[in-house]
Design goal:
It is a single chain. The chain is an alpha/beta fold and 182 residues long. The protein has a single domain, classed as Rossmann fold. It has nine helices and four strands. The protein has helices at 18-24, 26-34, 49-58, 74-81, 94-97, 104-113, 122-136, 142-153, 175-179; strands at residues 40-44, 63-69, 116-120, 164-166. Helix 3 (49-58) links the parallel strand 1 (40-44) and strand 2 (63-69). Helix 2 (26-34) packs across helix 3 (49-58). The N and C termini lie far apart (60 Å).
Length: 182
C-alpha cells in the first residue's frame, strides 16, 4: 500500500494558492504579446490572485497599479501595515472585490511588484461602468470597471506619453440592467 504524504493545510480561498496566481497571471503573457510597449497596467484587486499573477510576470518591466474601491481597501491597508490585515468591505463592487483579507501568496508578490495602489469611490466605479457601456458597448460588472475608474476619475494620474493598459474583468453583470440604463 502506498504511503500517504501529509500536505500542508491549504488556504480556503482560491486566490491564495501559487498555482492560481500563476494561472491568473497568464493574461500578462497576452498583454506582452499584444501590447509589448505598454508602460503601465491598471488592475482591480480583491484578494490579490489576479493582480499577483500579472505583477509577477510584468515585474520590473511594466508599472503595475492596483485599484481598489474605497470601501474594500484590502491591499491599501495591508501595505500600510506591511502584512495582510482584516478589513471591513462594502459598496457596489464588494461582490467581486470585497475580500476580508488579501492572500499571503499574492501579497508576497505585490509588496515589491506593485508601483502604486489607488482608491476609487462607488460613484467613480458606477461612472466607469456606464462609460464602458455608453462608449464601447462593453458589459462589465462593477468590479470589472474599477480599474478604469482610476483613470477616468484622475485617481491615477497619467504621465505625458504614458501608454496604459486597463484590465476590464469580471462577468457578473446583468445584461438586462444595461438595457434599462444600468
Amino acid at each position: 500500500m502506498d504511503r500517504l504524504i501529509p500536505l500542508e493545510p491549504l488556504s480556503q480561498v482560491a486566490f491564495d494558492h501559487a498555482e492560481t496566481v500563476a494561472g491568473q497571471g497568464t493574461i500578462a503573457i497576452e498583454l506582452d504579446t499584444q501590447l509589448p510597449d505598454i508602460d503601465t497596467v491598471l488592475v482591480a484587486i480583491g484578494g490579490g490572485g489576479f493582480i499577483g499573477g500579472i505583477a509577477a510576470w510584468l515585474s520590473g518591466r511594466v508599472k503595475v497599479v492596483a485599484v481598489e474601491p474605497m470601501n474594500c481597501p484590502t491591499l491599501n491597508r495591508a501595505l500600510q501595515a506591511r502584512v495582510p490585515v482584516d478589513v471591513e468591505t462594502s459598496g457596489i463592487a464588494a461582490d467581486a472585490l470585497g475580500c476580508k483579507r488579501i492572500g499571503d501568496v499574492p501579497f508576497s508578490i505585490l509588496l515589491s511588484a506593485v508601483a502604486d495602489a489607488v482608491l476609487v469611490s462607488d460613484e467613480q466605479i458606477r461612472h466607469a461602468q456606464e462609460a464602458l457601456w455608453a462608449q464601447l458597448r462593453i458589459v462589465s460588472e462593477r468590479g470589472g470597471a474599477t480599474a478604469l475608474a482610476a483613470l477616468l476619475s484622475g485617481a491615477y494620474v497619467r504621465s505625458p506619453g504614458e501608454k496604459i493598459a486597463v484590465i476590464i474583468c469580471g462577468g457578473n453583470a446583468d445584461p438586462a440592467s444595461f438595457a434599462r440604463g444600468i
